[in-house]
Amino acid sequence: MCTNLRRLDLRGTGSPGNSESFEVDIAAPNAAISAEWADVIDQVKNAIVAIRVTAVRSFEDCAAGVWDGTGFVVSLDNPKEALILTNRHIITTGPIRARATFYEHDDLPIWPVYRDPVHDFGLFQFDSTELRFTPPTAICVAPLELRVGTEVLVIGNDNAEKIQILPATIARTDRNCPEYHDNYEDENTFYAGAGSNTSGGSSGSPVIARSGNCIALNAGGAHEAASAFFLPLDRAVYVLDWLKEHPNEIPLPPRGTLLARWLFQPFDMLRRLGFTAQQEEEVLSLSPDASLNDRQKGLLVVENVIRGTEAEQRLKPGDVLLEVAGKPCLNFVILEEQLDTAVDSEVNIKLSRAGEVKNIQLRVVDFHKLISHDFVECGGGVFHVLSYHTCKTYNIPISERGIYVAQSGFSFGLQIPVSAVITSVAGKKVTNLRDFEAALAGVPNKERYGAHLVACADLGLLPQAAQYLEAEVLGGRRCPGAARAACPATTSDEGYDQRSAAPEASVADASPISDARSRASAEQDSDTVPAALREEDSFGYPENSDAAISMVQPMLCTIVTQVSHEYATDFLQSKEENKSTVIRRFGVGLVIDTGGLVLTDRYTVPQPLVEVELTFGQTVTVNATCLFMHPHHNMVLLHYDPSAVKDLPVRAIELGDAQPKTEELSAGQILSFVSIHSDHQLSAKQVTVGSMCLKVWPFPQPPAYRGRNLEICNLNDTLHGLGGLLIEPAPSYRIRAWFAQFPAGSLRYLAGVPVQVFAAVLASLGLHSSWAAKRVRPLDPKLEVAALECEFEEVSLAKARREDGVPLENARALAACSSGGRRQILRVGRITSGGGCDSILLEGDLVLSINGKPVTKPHEVEREMRKCHSPDSGDGASVSSMRWRVQRSRQPMDLDLTPTLLRSDGTEHIVVFNGVVLRPTPRAVAERGGPTLAFTRPGQVEMGRRENWLQYIYPGSPADTFSFADSRAMRNLGWLVQLNNEPTPSIERLLEIIHSGALSGCEWLRCHVMDAEGRLSVRALRPVTGQWDRR
């Protein structure tokens, strides 16, 4: 059997400019279609709809997101409760919202009222009286007309384009179910085949015969062939008739199963299984008058059974089915008719096992009870009881169903993968949602607990994993009956009311995201901070025979950073991180003060809005908060509670070793490199200094932090680990450089920062060699640093003299102050748009001197800026101007330039508005340079502007439904500048508009968006009040 098959829904479609994704228009009939089809097309066109489905939560058979499909009206008996037939894999079993667009462009909400537990069909309900332009029309379903040789038209939303008409001829009607290798696969029915060449978006299309009736439902196709697979509609007719006969009743149409998968096999194959010639004659004698084409060609055979069931004990693969409940069973239609009338009762099964006739009694199980609809949300994760189809796919005993992880979330995402099955929590077995809730409720907040799980791809029981529950921060709730986007009905784990639907959804909110520093400080003040080790429990640091490691390890710690994927606003994510629910990074920390200060890099801690843990001596782990994130350099200051490690001999780096007079690193020096690894182990090796350079980092996309104006050290050796210290050999062991991870796009680059360079940066923050001993008050949490909003490049002195005409006397002064074997001059390579240097410096200016002193390195420029910075003045911090002499257009020029005071960088505050994650404009947007556009200034509190930068779109949110951005990858980022008639120049203004009620009652919101190039456009979305607004 061909396995290169696909379903024909179209996932993640629809860009803001692709309005045709929602248009429905019957294209002109194909020339190959005869004119007599025109009347048939005109008869059915008003009944066919394009469906857009939004899964608001991930579930077992789908991830949260948006997809397109097709459906058609099959019942108008009750105009207020008209029914649309489509595929089950379009409706899915999780919580959804959906809309249908009709032939004359009427756009109406629809909601699911029935999902078949096994076959690939389901029903939406809508109010046909709301149609304004399209005449209400229904298509008759006639499965008996499905015969080989029948000419048909497949009319549907092919490839999410305007509805297309594809001709085909039914080639066979006894194909076994296609195998898609998904969690959900149809079973125990025939499929029809034809070469219609349908593609994505045509799932749910009616297969129309010349009579104008629908004889099958388009469901799937082959990737590399024209083959299409049509679902016969015998059971769909049964469900429709039952619903019409039982209006306004809660119970679902009875659907029974023996918990076994059957395949149709021809008589020749049955002979191989021991089926005798006499038994074959008896079967053929049941229809002696049948024509050659209609004669019986085979019987149903047990393919496999579900583990942990009665069927597993009594049925065997290869058993040939002869009778059910005393009636000959010649096909799937008869089998299902008998089972659906005997739900929760026993039936007699007659079968042939290797030629021997056997009669057994089996209980018919209610199929609806085996399909999950309720779910629990906790810590950003989505959990529900494992359903029949996953048990079947992975051969899991249905009697021991655990809790399926549809979305792992922040609390579970690092240890429990998506699609895993949780079998116990905190030592308690969990087989249903009530047990799961009770087990989680019994775990104290922020306590670690054990969980056993089974990976669906590998059924071996994994070791117990430690989890971290944060109920206070991320919250948890149960959502009963939320498998329909709209109907908050009260149900149990075993049953679900799919019929009492309402057009509005009820989805749980997460707790607000507050200011990162306030939240982190509150956590530090709580009783969750680890207590200090008692003297008798003190471990000290591990002994090591390498003196260099023993000297360095008290200064280093391992850092672990983690954040939910949707809140990783400043992360440049790798492919693996982009697929992960929770992003986790490892890095190295350098203790700069035993009072609780650690220095790390911006690859490890890209933003303040993260959870940070520090591990000292492979023994003690403490939480840390982000105190300061340098806006230009790859440096982050973290603060931790020193009492948690007071019994460890933690030692701070001696900043006194980093005096400006310290000789610089030079190529060829042989030193020792002590590095730390993610497993907290340290290693040491002898290395050779390769080069010192001012590296110009490439611009990432989307815009994010990139280092500037920082000299780095490269080694000639291959480096391993997260970073560490470069030190001189014995006996001095003097520290020469700090090695850290630099963000380079979605990758990382391990390089060193000379000690005098990063010491100068720390000194600009008030951290110098005597700071720890002399400080009498805590470090100001609102640190500011004097900075130049421009970027330097290195140019050789020879090139500057030849091409830019640098005067001889300036060249001599620059050469005299050069060191490390390098003679270079600084050139202004890029200027931050709207910054303090804009309109004063120009790209290409060569820096000759500052305040009369020649400078050749960025840290020398920062040294002069420090002299102009007065952080302790009576009226607050202030800076005075500097006298610059630059070479511009081959002429020297004197300029007065005042540095800019910059606060900590990185995202500390976000707003989620209808699924759009908004944040202040990142500094990287302005640092790209170029013309100054509105809203391009980085959002800073002191400016009074915190523009609404579009960062991310939640899958399954209203913004995702209505294609708020070009794509979920958000490659063309920009700003939300206006809502309806209200400008939104800042996050604060947006919140004022929301809280004022100005948007209440609005059916549609007109969102004015400006992209990164300054182009304005309008997006319209239908808001969901209270469910997607978070701060």
From TrEMBL:
Keywords: Hydrolase, Protease. GO terms for biological process: proteolysis. Residues 272-330 form the PDZ domain. It comes from Durusdinium trenchii. GO terms for molecular function: peptidase activity. It comes from the Eukaryota. InterPro entries: PDZ, PDZ-like_dom, PDZ_sf, Peptidase_S1_PA, Peptidase_S1_PA_chymotrypsin. This is Pro-apoptotic serine protease NMA111. Residues 858-872 have a biased composition (Basic and acidic residues).
